[in-house]
Amino acid sequence: MAEASDVNVGGGCEEKGPEGSSPESVPPDTTISRMKLLDTTVDTFLQKLIAAGRRPSGIPEKDLCSVTVPCLLRQRDALQRRLQRQEAENRQLADAVLAGRRQVQELQLQGQARWQAWQALHKGRKELVAVLREPE
């Protein structure tokens, strides 16, 4: 066990998750390169465990899971928090859009009412002018 303590088992657990980077800044082909990086990290981790003679369970898959599962759970939690924040922001934006639509509709109704009032006044003015011009 003393030999295993000086082995750098870093791997991908230092990554804080997606919160540090925006999805817009990640090109689509990086998914493949991230998968290759993950595979390389896993292989390196297993090689270091084997080289150090440290295999707590004796089953490589179980040893790997005991290390990667906590990292993946932290990443999942970070993604869930990000999703919740994004959904809340989307709800706020949707409410703002609906309020804006209601305001536009009210302004359209006010404009129509003013137009009709102006037409009525204009018609009344024409009738008044016509009456005043008639010879008696």
Automatic annotation (TrEMBL):
Coiled coil stretches, renumbered: 69-96
Segments crossing the lipid bilayer: none
One GO-annotated biological process of the protein: cell division
Source domain of life: Eukaryota
Compositional bias per record (Low complexity), positions renumbered to this chain: 19-28
Signal peptide positions on this chain: none
InterPro entries: PMF1/Nnf1
Pfam family, one: Nnf1
Entry keywords, A to Z: Cell cycle, Cell division, Centromere, Chromosome, Coiled coil, Kinetochore, Mitosis, Nucleus
Protein name: Polyamine modulated factor 1
Organism name: Rhinolophus ferrumequinum (Greater horseshoe bat)
